[in-house]
Batch of 3 targets.
Target 1
Amino acid sequence: MNNNVFIENLSVAYQGKPAIQSVDLVLSANKLTGIVGPNGAGKSTLMKAALGLIPKSNGSITYLDEPLKSNQRRFAYVEQRQNADLSFPIDVFGVVLLGTYPKVGLIRRPGKKEKELAWRCLEKVGLTDFAKRQIGELSGGQLQRVFLARALAQEADWFFLDEPFVGIDASSERTIIDLLKQLRNEGKSIVIVHHDLHKVRDYFDELVLLNKELIAYGEVSQTFTAENLQKGYGEEITEMIRLGERKNDR
């Protein structure tokens, strides 16, 4: 059975204005896929609509020959860090334990099995020493790793992350991308809304280039081209990338 996610003719509108229009693409299983495009291109909208987190105007999203919502537990979503309530009185371990709730339900409390799972997930992201720390005390990179641990506790097959590297230091970003690559190598499927084009070739196997409409998608080597970038961003951005790559090569 095909484990890819099929997005067909997906459109979303806000207050009558199109956010994304008629998007057709396939998100490949067991890959690290980036979604890129200029500000306002609809990247987060595409991700949220695919997961059923916001209403769509049109289209279908299927997985394992069924509507994706029939397999919702196989999908974990990590929202933008800026949307988190850091004043909420919960510690790091409590946040990760929340990832077990979709399986145990809201009525039954997590038991020993779930707590052991949450601890293993904290170990995987290297934050067991922070287990009792309130989430508002963490750095941006630490908080992002906690959210990833919570997603791991869901024991999902797919991980969707919305701008996970915004506002974190370079060392934390490297730690997180290395962990995501490890998860991919273990058979997980990962989709990331991303903004830094200089990292695309290093980070991703496949790429979705969007600007309200789909510009291109597929393997990075075939998709991340000057022609496609000009269609998505205009000529100015392609020159910026060339300059950035020259700088990085020095």
Target 2
Amino acid sequence: MSMLRTIKPKNARVKRALAAREPQVVENEKTAIFVRGQSTSEIVRNVMKDLYALKQPHAINFSRKNDIHPFEDTSSLEFFANKNDASLFVTGLHSKKRPHNLVFTRMFDGRVLDMMELGVEGFKSMGEFDSPKSSVGIRPLMVFHSDLFDTHPKYQLVKSFLLDFYNGHALSEIPLIGGLEHVISITAGPLPQTEGLDLENDKNLPKIHLRVYTVKLLASGSKIPKTQLTEMGPSIDFSLRRVQDADEEMLKMSMKRPKLAKSDVESGLGKKKKNIETDSMGDKVGKLHLDRQDLSKMQGRKMKGLKVRKVPAASDGEMQVDNDEE
């Protein structure tokens, strides 16, 4: 039996609203909600403030405290997600057992998909860095330094979460004009001296270091400029705590992709059809095949220039000429 809920629309307006919230072929920017629990620390509030600034304008900040514990009860998150059409959450908590705690949550179809808990071990805010800041709404370049982000299950989840939150994209070359203002660098380390990593014991897992830099292009005497990185903040050191993996059925649904190829979706062509293609400008161009026209049967009496005139028969040895064709 499917865990995903189904809502039957009562009228056309509700039907359109539900259709807009359904998974799309090309998803829009994900909105993140930053919410505080009943007990938080000053460090947690400042960390959430800077993470919120990096996520703007697709972020909502709840100023009031909420009695919320994501790992024990997800009803509040699901209520906030459906009310605000948001699929990402950052919950700030603080307790003696788990001090300076952040819980990252992803939603799918109004339900909690998976969660990740990180502890703040070190923090320097943006205000402590006397450097220029990036513009609001610019997508960052994200760099992950460690093989753990590709091999270790928990660090793979961290990488997936951060890419989802900040919509980072991979680049083989740095654009010279606009498009890139800051870089988010995530490093895992140092590795423990003992061989291997204990997947169950979180205390032995390396810390996660998040740094943010602005990008400045300097003259180098050639066509390729020199790239200078200046730390803009925040600077955060995380320890990896609890994780809640996604339900297999929900994960399968969330990763479901349309049958159309990516190139077809980008060109707007869809399923390839005969005699239809797209030109260099991305416009759809088609060919029409018609039968050969019989001009002798064309109606032309209503136009003076197309009237059929009778030409008298020419005598022997003379050429027959139509005055209109002379």
Target 3
Amino acid sequence: MNAVWPVTLTEGDLGLRPIRVRDQKAWREVSSRNRDWLRRWEATVPPPPPGRLAGPRPTFRQMVRYLRAEASAGRMLPFAVTYRGRLVGQLTVGGITWGSMCSANIGYWIDEAVAGQGIMPTAVALAADHCFRALGLHRIEVCIRPENTPSRRVVEKLGFRQEGLRTRYLHIDGDWRDHLVYVLTAEEVPEGLLNRWRAAVSDRRHN
């Protein structure tokens, strides 16, 4: 794992690179401006058991240090998403499992100002190809709330197949929420997911 991380992936004006402490100002600006856009889909921490106090929220620096440690341990790839050199979102490959499973999950968010321009499908395709080809993973999952139509469109455009529903799967926006499971395995994209996405974009432009 450490042989392929840190890594920077690019496709045209889009880039994926490791998130870093000096991203704090840009990250906070984008997050603050998109608070209403993102709140419904953001993970939250469930209330503590009776008699226990909730811990303080981590600072940005603490979050980045945690993500770096997880990346160094081979459990995560924490990317900043950039577009024309500007930070516009985040994509995290998490839950990396080796052994007989060789799987991971992908989560992402993007600035509403640039949503709908194909940025996130391209980012997911770049990350998935890196997972399949450089890391040797076999299976990628993306779990999405059924109500999150824009996020579902991202994976549906890329050809992820819907595999089922996980009931009350993650604590999101203050409660346990159901999530649809979208899946892709390496055998399903022998040509590479980015090549599949490029072909789909080209077809749309010519039809």
